[in-house]
Amino acid sequence: MKTLLLKKDEVRRLIGMAEVIGAVEEAYKAFSSDQVEQPDYIGIHLPSLRGEIDFKLGYYKANEIISMKAHSGGFTNNPAEHGVPNSIGTILLFDARSCALICIMDGSLITGLRTGASGAVSVKALARKNARTIASIGTGNQARMQIRAVNEIMKIEKIHAWSRTPESLSRYKTDIQREFGIPVIVASSKKEAVEQADILITTTRGKGELVEADLVKPGTHIVAIGTDQRGKQELDPELFRNAKIIVDSISQCTEKGETWHPLRSWSSSYAIRLRPHRSGRADFPHPALPESNPRHIRACAQVRVMCGTGSVKRAVRISNSNQLIRRLF
């Protein structure tokens, strides 16, 4: 049996964002119906001035495909010192009937597309239908990919963008306006951007200041990308007090990712309940806000929190789309 080799340009010719959005949506359904087996991923943090590398594995029963991805990130000196990108991905595909290796492909483009698509799937399912304004906290490659994906499923009227790096913010404004013709308003502060959002997208490395709960207006949908492991965080845990959470994997989301922070913060003084549903949803009410509280009921009618761990949010919907689902490409 021959093994197919696909470079990044060849992968780019074979797939596009619209196809990946459909694939991610179907992958969620497959995972929720026990058609996917995926063990916990393995992550290795490398010494200072380098980043991390993750290894992720999945088996899709319907297609009899086993996929494994190695993906690194945070190697900021790579371009200058080694002549390679700061983030590199490689995907291996196996025929599950024989475990023969059938394909080796570049995984960096697929990773970017899949992460963007996962945000779009959450927006399609959970955001308000009249949402039109996006705030982007972080203006790197994945911030652009999120706009590409969300633009496939809704009309974006304007984007309020903020970054700690003025040069990155300026390039983002130029690139987005040129590619989509969507007005980008450069915010002077994170607060100024967040307060405008119908949909809030955070694509930082999860090491900076948090998005404070008081800045997020009722009805906002949040796509939080940066927190795929412990030690990373983008959102104030107080955002979760009135929220219902939609998760891809309850077992993983209680151990790592954005939901781990409120669980850790509150578990010492409250009994946190995380109840699974057939759809993969988990209720996440806070005992300090009983069901008889009208404000709590009104908030919960709107709040959806969609969380993943390196996978697939007052009233708030949050989509933590770091690892939405499972390497099925």
The gist of it:
With 329 residues, this protein is of the alpha/beta class.
Structural class label: alpha/beta
Order of helices and strands: EHHEEEEHEEHEHEHEHEEEHHEEHEE
- Radius of gyration, taken over Cα atoms and rounded to an integer in Å: 19 Å
Q: Quick one: how many beta strands? A: 17
Number of helices: 10
What coarse outline follows from CA principal-axis ratios?
globular
* Strand residue content: 15-25%
Provide an overview of this structure.
With 329 residues, the chain is of the alpha/beta class. 30% of the residues lie in helices and 25% in strands. The strands form 2 sheets. The chain has a 10-stranded mixed beta sheet with strand order 10-9-8-11-12-17-16-13-15-14. Strands 1, 2, 3, 4, 5, 6 and 7 form a 7-stranded mixed beta sheet that branches. Helix 4 packs across helix 5. The radius of gyration is 19 Å and the shape is globular. The relative contact order is 0.14. The C terminus is likely disordered.
What is the secondary structure topology, with strand pairs?
Blueprint: E1 4-6, H1 8-14, H2 17-32, E2 36-37, E3 42-45, E4 52-60, E5 65-73, H3 78-82, E6 88-95, E7 100-106, H4 108-126, E8 133-137, H5 141-153, E9 158-162, H6 166-180, E10 184-186, H7 190-194, E11 199-202, E12 220-224, E13 245-247, H8 250-253, H9 260-267, E14 275-276, E15 281-283, H10 294-300, E16 304-307, E17 316-320
Parallel strand pairs: 1-7, 8-9, 8-11, 9-10, 11-12, 12-17, 13-16, 16-17
Antiparallel strand pairs: 2-4, 3-4, 4-5, 5-6, 6-7, 13-15, 14-15
